[in-house]
Amino acid sequence: MKIVGLSGSVVGSKTRTVMNYTIDKFKEKYPDEDISLIDLADYDVQISDGRNYLDYTGDTGYVAKELMGADVIIIGTPIFQASIPGALKNIFDLLPVQAFQDKVVSIIVTAGSTKHFLTVEQHLKPILGYMKATIVQTYVFIEEKDFYQKEITNVDVQFRIERLVEDTIDVTHAFQKIREEKDDKYDF
């Protein structure tokens, strides 16, 4: 199974801190899986111009192809101005409408205020649903107060991330079994 973490911002450190922690937990609990992290801050991704994702080269092509090849995607995003960052939205624009079909997607959010907790429900989940993702319904919302010097200091947040890792794999296995049962109904 190919698991890709996506740190969806080109600025700041909190989302990257959380994604590093999350990816480490995936590797610790599921060491036999193919697990990687894409931090958009490390790549020069072009603005989407509407062409097929396979036609992009360089960093843009790499990021798009890695996400398309994943079975599981963990999206980490900060909330800016009560919305997702433009860099993350651009990634969605690069991919085809059904990019996340048969993929399980889980979400981790960092925000400076509890006032932004519904951004996931109002902005991110509708996009992922439109792109046919199987969304792990519970997500982890982390506030600025839960960090100190690029470390997660809230034990409850650490526990919720570990639970999200397990839930993501459980949902993935459940949907794989459902797809296999459906495929077995056909004789060809």
Automatic annotation (TrEMBL):
<feature type="domain" description="NADPH-dependent FMN reductase-like">
    <location>
        <begin position="1"/>
        <end position="143"/>
    </location>
</feature>
<dbReference type="Pfam" id="PF03358">
    <property type="entry name" value="FMN_red"/>
</dbReference>
<dbReference type="InterPro" id="IPR051814">
    <property type="entry name" value="NAD(P)H-dep_FMN_reductase"/>
</dbReference>
<dbReference type="InterPro" id="IPR029039">
    <property type="entry name" value="Flavoprotein-like_sf"/>
</dbReference>
<keyword id="KW-0560">Oxidoreductase</keyword>
<keyword id="KW-0288">FMN</keyword>
<protein>
    <submittedName>
        <fullName>NADH-dependent FMN reductase</fullName>
    </submittedName>
</protein>
<keyword id="KW-0285">Flavoprotein</keyword>
<dbReference type="InterPro" id="IPR005025">
    <property type="entry name" value="FMN_Rdtase-like_dom"/>
</dbReference>
<dbReference type="GO" id="GO:0016491">
    <property type="term" value="F:oxidoreductase activity"/>
</dbReference>
